[in-house]
Amino acid sequence: MVIAVVQKNSGSLLGQMVRIKQGREAGQYAIIIGVLDDQFVLLADGEKRKTNRPKKKNLHHVEMVDYISPEVQNSLLETGRVTNGKLRFAITTFIGKVVTDLKKGDLHDGER
After folding, report:
1. What is the CATH number of the domain that holds 60?
2. For 31-53, what is each residue's pLDDT tens digit?
3. Is the separation of the CB atoms in 51 and 3 below 8 Å?
4. Mean pLDDT, rounded, for 64-93
5. HEC readout, the chain
6. 71 within some domain
7. What pLDDT is stored for residue 4 in this prediction?
């Protein structure tokens, strides 16, 4: 199966971390590895959704997270491919660093 990836203005979305809002995988994190058009992207996480079979997802069904994996983005821009191990590492790093910090901040809420 050949997947055509549109490259105009898609460089800014490649490597973008997203949280899936709707569907069977709701609540899970994935990374954009391809842009089909202004409405659909290709997602992979390296575990359930591997790079050889990415999930086509509507942009309205994902929540953009303020994090872009530089390793994944560079690999996609240079070679057009990324390894599943690199995706797993990027997601694990993000969850360990950012999501854990958010949970710690929620407990205190700035008041004593």
Report:
1. 2.30.30.30
2. 999 999 999 999 999 999 999 99
3. no
4. 93
5. CCCCCCCCCCCCCCCEEEEECCCCCCCCEEEEEEECCCCEEEEECCCCCCCCCCEEEEHHHEEEEEEECHHHHHHHHHHCCCCHHHHHHHHHHHHHHHHHHHHHHHHHCCCC
6. yes
7. 37
Tell me whether residue 24 is in a domain.
yes
* Domain count within the chain: 1
Range of the domain at 55: 16-108
Q: Model's pTM, two decimal places?
A: 0.79
25 phi, psi to nearest 5 deg: -100, 25
Beta strands across the sheet bearing 40-44: 55-58, 40-44, 29-35, 16-20, 62-68
Residue 101 lies in a domain: yes
Residue 97's pLDDT band, with cuts at 50, 70 and 90, is confident
